[in-house]
Amino acid sequence: MEVSVIGSSQVKTELAYRELGFCNLKGGKAVISSKNRVCVGRSTGWRKSGIRFTLRATAAIQSEQLRSDSVSGRSTRSKSRDNVRLFVGLPLDTISDCNAVNHARAIAAGLKALKLLGVEGVELPVWWGIVEKEAMGKYEWSGYLALAEMVQNAGLKLHVSLCFHASKQHKLSLPEWVSRIGESEPSIFFTDRAGRQYKECLSLAVDDLPVLDGKTPVQVYREFCESFKSSFSSFMGSTITGISMGLGPDGELRYPSHQRLVKSNKITGPGEFQCYDKNMLSILKHHAEATGNPLWGLGGPHDASTYNESPNSNNFFRDHGGSWESPYADFFLSWYSNQLISHGERLLSLASSTFSETAITVYGKVPLMHSWYKTRSHPSELTAGYYNTTTRDGYEAVTEMFASNSCKLMLPGMDLSDEHQPHESLSSPELLLAQIRTACRKHGVEVSGQNSSATGAPGGFEQIKKNLVGDNVVDLFSYQRMGAYFFSPEHFPSFTKFVRSLNQSELHSDDLPEEKEEAADSLRVSSDSVVCMQEA
Question: Where is this region: Disordered (predicted)?
Answer without folding.
Answer: 509-528
